[in-house]
Amino acid sequence: MEKSKNPISIRSRKIIINTLLELMKVKEYSEITITEIVIKAQLARKTFYRNFKSKDDVLNEYVDYLFNEYIHKLANLDNLTNVSVTQCYFEFWQEHVSFLKLLERNNLLIYILKKYDEYLPVIQHLFPCKQQNKVNDTMLKYSIAYSSGGFWKILCKWIEDDCTETPEEMGLIYNSFMEIPND
Known about the structure:
The protein is mainly α. The protein contains nine helices and no strands. It is globular. The model has no long low-confidence stretch (mean pLDDT 88).
């Protein structure tokens, strides 16, 4: 579904997204209906369907927004290292931990993994690694898959542990196991 640039449509989409997130704080995602969303948002049902096909589309749009925000933060890093990129990643998610907890409570963290599959190739293209010219398309494809799964699982573990470690500590932790030599 093509997103409208119309200010009224943009406003309606934001209201619908915020309403879904508010409902998720008090109710299981699977139990939330489109009717509940539009009533709480004080919008017509046709407004919902003009902007979204389903509540999954609403959640997807919000996660897209978050990933674009993360890419913007990543673009503003002065020095791209394992530590700085990982620290930026956890600083970003720390700002959105309440959303992550909603996803976790509803067994929806898979939305983040699916977005990694979409956005990591974009990030890889924007911020190529030093050795990218030595990597063929097949290697790059598997490298991105490995990174998606790894970053997602680390994020899930961090959330499961109540985000105990700071973003700085997570950067160092990630860097420490990325530097383990192969014997």
